[in-house]
Known about the structure:
Elements: H1 12-22, E1 55-60, H2 65-82, E2 84-89, H3 95-101, E3 110-113, H4 115-124, H5 131-137, E4 155-167, E5 190-193, H6 198-211, H7 218-228, E6 231-234, H8 237-245, E7 251-255, H9 256-264, E8 269-273, E9 278-287, H10 293-306, H11 309-319, E10 322-323, H12 332-335, H13 343-346, E11 349-350, H14 354-372
Parallel strand pairs: 1-2, 1-3, 5-6, 5-7, 9-11
Antiparallel strand pairs: 3-9, 4-7, 4-8, 4-9, 4-10
Helix pairs in contact: 2-11, 3-4, 4-14, 6-7, 7-14
Amino acid sequence: MSTNDKAKGPSRRKFIKTGAAAGAVAAGGLPLFNINHAWSQDVTYDGGVFDAGGATFRLAEWPGFWQENITELLLNDFERDFNCKFEYDGSWPWFAKFVAGGVDNPPNDAANWNIPDLIKTARAGEFFVSQDEVRANVPNANDLWPFAYDNGVGFTWAFGQYCFAYRSDRVDPAPDSFKSFWDDRFNGKRATYVTINTLQNVFFMVANSVWGSDDHDMEAGFDALRRAMPLKLSDFTGNMQTLLERGEVDIAVLVDGEAYMQRDRGVPIDQYIWQEKKALLTQTHTISRGSEPMQKKLAYALLNRRLSPEFQTKFDNVFYLRPTNKNAEVAPNLAANGVTNDASSTEGLWIPDWNWYVDNETEITDVSNEIFSS
């Protein structure tokens, strides 16, 4: 379902107009909302370059290798072109920071998210500029494949497809279904992630569906985890790649691009991309509703660059992720592995019901941790 099919709240401009028309007054004659606050002021952007006068822009993204490369590929040029300075927050997660600051005092002007943390934050308050308002101010935001809007809050700008990566020198025949993960030949040689990792969340929901009635069938998922034990657990994908490379596991939950990356380095790795549910690991960007006007305008400009075909191709050639802009060329490293960027390549892509997951997260986490520690 595209963003146009989703129910949306009123846009900021509509809120301002209807609020003023209503003339709502609180005790003491003060308006019910602060018309002088940053979010109540119209900020527009047309896609061009402007002088931000040395403004500081607070950005939340991943640390380490990611920060080094996103700085080189995007942020350095942006600072020079727009006369601004980034304040980089690599201390994830963001949820607690947004809730602590409140809607009018966001910890960052823009953020890159894992979907579960994003959904929890969006449900806690109106922290983000709506998709409609962003699309009215960010030209490249209108050139994405429909699934990039499906989260209903931010804009997915890069993604990979979930797969089972396996050691091609030791696994024969190759796994050919999601259920192959449970083959007896993989006993003691399987790996997944700790429960706070989005990859484990998605693996669990797909197991619910494949082994049960649908992706909400938790008992089927728990049973699948029990039958897969003992499992090696990883906290992030880099560590999972190491487990595969060292031969500590023969099969593992991964993202297709990371399997391609290892294979291009000469590691004997191949992958089965899940077909039963074509699940995605996504990178999703938001703009904070309560940011000051200059920072909000910079946020529009930064997102416009992030969503440009040129940047997405350049970024994907380093990170082995796929673009969401319809007009982006596939990076050479992905094209060499058969990846395309067309309507057929996005057909059937599946976004989990993250609202359901958040509603049931405590039970899923507690039971899964009990299974993993048994």
